[in-house]
């Protein structure tokens, strides 16, 4: 080519940064840019989604497992509008997405033409940074800035609008790898010493962790601190194994919907260490009184915005979780007294005993419904655990069925378990597709719900189109179970007697046969309705060469209620 244009320069920049995939859905104003992609085959691959929501969600899965900038292509204002829900998901989950959208051209700004829209303003609320390239001399400059911002903690999505006439103009910019700053920073020694002194003298210490721990790969350092002081560890805005689920000190997640559920736990502590998260991420948070009156609060994070955002802290430490917790552990071990260490060990033993007692009770309850029809998730999860390889990666969008899934397949290792975050339904199927692209040698399984899967069911086509060998399990309980649980809470809060759920909470009449839907898109599938079908179905899915879906028909009963079972069960 005599003169290289911006559309070629962009691909060369992405390749210089080690980016090989673009997730997207094509559109007219991007056609010149997309036409360019074929020139770089097979170095650069376009992952074709049938709707923008799927493109963003698949990229989100890829970005989460790689923790690297991941590119999404959307189609002007309408495509961006379709993708915004999942971009919000990525923002809440700190996924480093670089979202690109084309537009007709700067020369048409005054015309108010078809599909003309302020893309930058549309994207701004769901991104770390939103901008528009307005001159050919700054295409790569802006792109590198976008990649850097997306990849710098706290990571998150960015948006760049690309006018067609700018990309078609000659581009003379030099292609160089993006400079991404190192953020392995730690607080001052004196600040760490103050924090260690408070933690060492705690009688009822508690640690609240989020995905900043996983991003920093700080699970081991966090566990070490928890063991030294004998602290319960709870997750908040935690969707990855920030601590091994099976560790005696790990207690699970704080409330997701209602702040009162969280405060019942947090009020028990006299010292709280918060690491890599914000407090508190519930839908209906408690506005005050979340900590005991004289409790001391310490917060470690790379995101200063989150430190003391909603509630005061005694010590706020700007620092990378891995390096900061490692130094904090050294300080604690060198200063904690023998008496305090003995107290910590005694606390750990009591916490472990109580956790095991609760777990045993749950296992006993599972035995009572082991052979039930309709099936319970506990039966399926127990059998699934016996067949899958040890390094299987799970994308868990099971929601109301997640506790039973994790009871038998606990989240233990960073990079092998991902849970939905941000509130957007439909991330399970495309999320697993993105993860499988990043780890083609691993078994990748998405566990999602019937309601959530229907938001992005077209993603099955993408799996077949690109021969992405992920496995999908749809928990088919014929309804939005989480809405039923939430309205039960609402009724009790307002003293409303239990009655039939709103009809819009049920997914029946007609019944959704996910096995047939999958088959229509070329995905291997099977429907499981009885206990004896579980084992053979799992074995078939795992041995199948290509994407495979299990339509798992589960009970829609809500335990502890007097409301009749609907949808023919």
TrEMBL record:
A Gene Ontology BP annotation from the UniProt entry: L-valine biosynthetic process
**What InterPro entries does its record include?**
DHS-like_NAD/FAD-binding_dom, THDP-binding, Thiamin_PyroP_enz_cen_dom, Thiamin_PyroP_enz_TPP-bd_dom, TPP-bd_CS, TPP_enz, TPP_enzyme_TPP-bd
State its cofactor. thiamine diphosphate
Q: Which GO terms describe its cellular component?
A: acetolactate synthase complex
Q: What keywords tag this UniProt record?
A: Thiamine pyrophosphate
Q: Which GO terms describe its molecular function?
A: acetolactate synthase activity; flavin adenine dinucleotide binding; magnesium ion binding; thiamine pyrophosphate binding
Segments forming domain Thiamine pyrophosphate enzyme N-terminal TPP-binding: 5-120
Q: Show the PROSITE patterns listed in the entry.
A: TPP_ENZYMES (PS00187)
Q: Which residues form the Thiamine pyrophosphate enzyme TPP-binding domain?
A: 406-551
| The keyword Lyase is assigned to this record | no
Give the Thiamine pyrophosphate enzyme central domain ranges: 192-328
Entry superkingdom? Bacteria
| Transcription found in the keyword field | no
Question: Could you tell me which PANTHER family the record lists for this protein?
Answer: ACETOLACTATE SYNTHASE CATALYTIC SUBUNIT, MITOCHONDRIAL (PTHR18968:SF13), THIAMINE PYROPHOSPHATE ENZYMES (PTHR18968)
Name the family.
Answer: Belongs to the TPP enzyme family.
- Protein's UniProt name: Thiamine pyrophosphate-binding protein
Source taxonomy: Bacteria, Bacillati, Cyanobacteriota, Cyanophyceae, Nostocales
């Amino acid at each position: 080519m005599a003169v290289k244009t911006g559309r070629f320069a962009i691909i060369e920049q992405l390749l210089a940064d080690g980016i090989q995939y673009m997730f997207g859905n094509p559109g007219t104003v991007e056609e010149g840019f997309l036409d360019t992609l074929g020139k770089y085959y097979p170095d650069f691959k376009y992952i074709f989604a049938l709707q923008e929501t799927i493109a963003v969600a698949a990229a989100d899965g890829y970005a989460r497992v790689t923790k690297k900038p991941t590119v999404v292509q959307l189609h002007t204002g309408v495509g961006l509008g379709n993708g915004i829900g999942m971009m919000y998901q990525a923002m809440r989950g700190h996924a480093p997405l670089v979202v690109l959208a084309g537009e007709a051209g700067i020369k048409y700004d005054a015309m108010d033409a078809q599909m003309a829209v302020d893309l930058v303003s549309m994207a701004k609320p769901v991104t770390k940074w939103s901008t528009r390239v307005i001159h050919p001399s700054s295409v790569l400059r802006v792109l590198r800035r976008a990649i850097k911002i997306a990849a710098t903690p706290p990571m998150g999505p960015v948006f760049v609008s690309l006018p067609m006439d700018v990309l078609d103009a000659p581009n003379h910019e030099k292609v160089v790898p993006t400079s991404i700053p190192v953020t392995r920073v730690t607080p001052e020694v004196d600040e760490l010493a103050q924090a260690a002194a408070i933690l060492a003298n705690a009688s009822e210490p508690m640690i609240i962790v989020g995905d900043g721990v996983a991003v920093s790969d700080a699970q081991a350092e966090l566990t070490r601190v928890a063991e030294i002081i004998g602290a319960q560890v709870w997750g908040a805005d935690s969707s990855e194994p920030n601590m091994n689920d099976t560790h005696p000190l790990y207690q699970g997640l704080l409330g997701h919907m209602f702040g009162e559920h969280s405060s019942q736990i947090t009020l028990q502590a006299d010292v709280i260490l918060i690491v890599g998260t914000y407090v508190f991420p519930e839908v209906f948070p408690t506005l005050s009184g979340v900590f005991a009156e004289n409790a001391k609060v310490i917060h470690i994070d790379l995101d200063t915005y989150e430190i003391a955002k909603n509630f005061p802290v005694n010590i706020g430490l700007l620092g990378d979780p891995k390096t900061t917790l490692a130094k904090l552990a050294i300080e604690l071990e060198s200063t904690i007294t023998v008496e305090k260490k003995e107290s910590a060990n005694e606390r750990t033993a009591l916490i472990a005993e109580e956790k095991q007692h609760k777990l045993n009770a749950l296992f006993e309850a599972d035995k009572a419904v082991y052979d039930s029809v309709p099936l319970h998730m506990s039966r399926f999860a127990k059998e699934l655990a016996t067949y899958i390889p040890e390094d299987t990666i799970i994308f868990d969008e099971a929601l109301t069925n997640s506790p039973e899934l994790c009871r038998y397949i606990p989240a233990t290792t960073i990079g092998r378990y991902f849970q939905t975050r941000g509130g957007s339904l439909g991330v399970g199927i495309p999320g697993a597709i993105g993860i499988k692209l990043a780890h083609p040698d691993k078994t990748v399984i998405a566990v999602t719900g019937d309601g959530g899967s229907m938001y992005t069911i077209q993603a099955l086509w993408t799996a077949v189109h690109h021969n992405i060998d992920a496995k999908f399990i749809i928990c088919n309980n014929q309804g939005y179970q989480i809405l039923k649980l939430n309205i039960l809470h609402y009724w009790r809060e307002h003293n409303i007697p239990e009655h039939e759920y709103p009809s819009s909470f049920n997914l029946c009449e007609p019944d959704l046969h996910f096995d047939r839907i999958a088959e229509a898109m070329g995905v291997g599938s099977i429907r499981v309705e009885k206990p004896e079908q579980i084992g053979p179905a799992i074995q078939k899915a795992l041995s199948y060469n290509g994407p495979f879906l299990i339509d798992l028909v589960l009970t829609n009963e809500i335990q502890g209620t007097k409301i009749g079972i609907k949808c023919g069960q």
